[in-house]
Amino acid sequence: MSPEDEGRELDDKFHDECGLFGVWNHAEAANVAYLGLYALQHRGQESAGIAATDGHAFHVEKAMGWVADVFSRDRLRRLPGNRAMGHVRYSTAGSSSLRNAQPITATTAHGPVAIAHNGNLINAEELRRQLEADGAVFQSSSDTEVILHLLARAEGGTLVDQLARALAQVKGAYTLLLLTPTCMITVRDPSGFRPMTLGRLNDSWVLASETCALDLMEAEIVRDVEPGEFVVVDDAGLQSYKPLRPQPKLQCVFEYVYFARPDSVLWGRNVHAVRKALGHQLAREHPVAADLVIPVPDSGVGAALGFAEEAGLPYDSGLVRNHYVGRTFIEPEQRVRDFGVRLKLNPVKHVIDGKRVVLIDDSIVRGTTSRKIVRMVRDAGAKEVHMRISCPPTISPCYYGVDTPSKNQLIAANKSVDEIREYIGADSLAYLSLEGLKKAAGESERLSYCTACYTGKYPTRLVDVEEIQAAPAPEMVAGD
Ligand code: SF4
């Protein structure tokens, strides 16, 4: 295996999607956006960008890399104005290159607009072909540009009308953030796959994919943007519209399991508390005689704490993560077994030696990394290794804005639980049930989740473009 392959294998996870942040009416808008993106870095590490405006001119800076590397003090100075929006990206559609970095900008009938997107459109290819046949020229391969072309061509009075008509044509997952010289708009798709939170920072409005970005600047969390809601912020205040046809709510449950930061509050619940609840439920469903519970850090920590609490077992840090691993590394000429994983995780022999260990992780994707971790824990002296996973087997790819391997690479799509146990070399293996996941995540009539990567049953969204295009202008449903 090449070092690059091994490096990729270090990350045998579903990958985060993107992070969005916007601020309106702040003297240091670009600096605030930079801080917001900094807090959202876990949602995308390939590129970062900020667009800012003073109400007249538009400035955009974006580049490949992490937020702190992309934005120097000088670069932030090139983003004047009291309104700004930013984006961190992990490519879920469109290749990983600067031309796909966001925000992307264009001039429409309503003037210049910058747009950024978290999610994935399932009919983007079809729409792109139609638009190209109609003369559209695309600069990038991202879904976001499809939305921008639809917006530029949509008929309608206000920008919100046009946006509603454009979005009536798309299917899939999107949380959008748009900035023009005179307003900032965010939209969550009617199923609400991806999150967005509205906050207040003194006299400024802020929007962020996760509340951890608001905490960093001590902004007040006002509320979640609702599925299907358009929130428009301008100098007159804030308006809310719901112009799209309602759909069943399908918020991504994997945000709780793995993506979101544990300190964030998502859909009314703290992510760490939900992860602990997953661990409690897992221990109730799959108890095991053991001496110790250890997490695969960092994402397994919450569930491991919950499991240990419920099982009445000691919890300890039996694996330590090196947080400073880059994407590439020079491998020693003499092969070190499991070199890549050892770069990232190291067992604490003192903790593990002679113990029957329950090892908690949030998921098994291909199984390659789990196999190496189990071997590492055994080599550190564990008498038994019982693997417990805080979600059901991931049997299907995601089409809603998460980078996942194809079905033939998902181990749970191709092997039984016992075959996976044998492959990873654990003494026992058990996954949380789907019912247990929903229960621990607090599913209710008000709060429902997408679980398609565990069930293979993809929600289908029917869109009647003609009907919606003929619909009257959207009605304001709430104001501030
Ligand atoms: Fe989330 Fe899985 Fe649904 Fe994708 S398929 S939106 S990862 S729950």
How does the SSE layout of this entry go?
Blueprint: H1 3-9, E1 18-24, H2 29-39, E2 47-53, E3 58-64, H3 67-70, H4 73-77, E4 83-89, E5 104-108, E6 111-121, H5 124-133, H6 143-153, H7 159-167, E7 172-179, E8 184-188, E9 197-201, E10 204-208, H8 211-216, E11 220-224, E12 230-234, E13 237-241, E14 251-252, H9 254-259, E15 265-266, E16 269-270, H10 271-285, E17 292-295, H11 301-311, E18 319-321, H12 339-344, E19 345-347, H13 349-352, E20 356-361, H14 368-379, E21 384-389, H15 411-414, H16 417-424, E22 428-431, H17 434-440, E23 449-450, H18 452-455, H19 465-469, E24 476-479
Parallel strand pairs: 14-23, 17-20, 20-21, 21-22
Antiparallel strand pairs: 1-4, 1-10, 2-3, 2-4, 5-6, 6-7, 7-8, 8-12, 9-10, 9-11, 12-13, 13-24, 15-16, 18-19
The structure holds iron/sulfur cluster.
Iron/sulfur cluster (SF4) is lined by residues 14, 193, 252-254, 398, 400, 402, 450-453.
